[in-house]
Request: fold
Amino acid sequence: MNLTLKIWRQKDSNAKGQMVDYKVTEISEHMSFLEMMDVLNEQLVGKGEEPVAFDHDCREGICGMCSMYINGEAHGPDRGITTCQLHMRMFKDGDTITIEPFRAAAFPVIKDLVVDRGAFDRIQHAGGYISVNTSGNTQDANAIPISKHAADEAMDAATCIGCGACVATCKNSSAMLFVGAKVSQYALLPQGQVEAADRVQNMVAQMDLEGFGNCTNTGACEVECPKGISLDNIARMNRELMKAAVK
Amino acid sequence: MSGFFKSSIGRKVAMALSAFFLMFFLLQHLVINLLSVFSPDAFNEVSHFMGTNPLVQFALQPVLIFAVVFHFVMGFILELKNKKANGVSYAKNNGAANSTWMSRNMIYSGLVVLAFIVLHFIDFWIPEINTKYIVGDMTGLHNGEFRYYHELVEKFHSPLRVGAYVISFVLLGLHLAHGFTSAFQSVGSSAGRKKVLQNIGKAYSILIPLGFIVIALFHHLTHNH
Reply:
């Protein structure tokens, strides 16, 4: 396949970026999108140009690093995948592909396609944990009975990899799917109850402080989420916050 | 509790609560207006009751005005905050791939509805307040007859006004098509009720605006000779 790529290039966080056109040739349709980017970067290095900076780590859909907005969608046109799992067979020979970083005021660009998602870490630090002493005296996990239904829902929420596709996709740059998932994974389990009120209040306060927008329930995040995190987690977070407010 | 309403989620809940009130108001408004199609006398009676009952006039009416103003002022504030949260715009953004047009354009459908409310205030509310509280005529009579039905019919003579009316209600329908279920989601409605609420929302967002449109067209066509 021969392709035209329109890629956002930005030298550093202070520089003004711009879209730059590149041509890549002889791309196999079996390649992943990141392998295609590797081919482009080898071409650029060969020509003595600066390669395109992009985040990647595991390349098997679990780390959530590969934050690219491809042809107007987070992680490109396929569903339930990260960019490393996007195959070039989703495109046609001769296509023009637009590649941009995840956009949100709370996700500043560090370089080219690399953005700072430290805001998610700070939200997590604000309450995304349970205070349990784990130094050698943990009790058996099965000592606390948990219904199958609650365990499944909590596990579904916990599959969130914190990639930020929800924020990138949201027309309001809202982080509520991420925070909703993180609140839910504890709210559904007995271990999470003790700190439930503080957790949701602190995490939502940090989310607001980071400058994320307000959810308007378009549902776009749920569609673009590589892990299929449900919008129901946002409703649950809203319930948890209301519960905490009247406590 | 005051901290709650300052949070992003608290604002959404407040938005939803005002929406619930407005949606209930729309339903009762439609029911009363429908009377004008079936029985001008009944429409006159109910209009006179609503227009002169102290509870409706001095308790419900201020709440309604507050809800309308709150809903659009908060809508603007949230829209501006959300725009600010966006940062740099995408060169290419395929919103249609993951969300409905209605959900992405609530501010625009809302603005059309707001423009309609202004027209509606000029048409009905201001003359009504003038007659009742400035002129001081609480009888509801004109030439010895109740004036309400006659005034309604009068307004629907102009095809321009009927056109504006129809367009506004189509946009209101689009606003409700997203807004109905969105309001329930904002107040944390559980997953089990989703399907039922979606169906009620669909029916509500079609039937309510359609009802108002049919009433306008009915009076325009039957009294325009």
Summary: The beta strands of chain A are 3-9, 18-24, 68-70, 73-74, 96-101, 109-111, 114-115. Chain A has two domains: 3-111, 117-246. The mean pLDDT of chain A is 96.
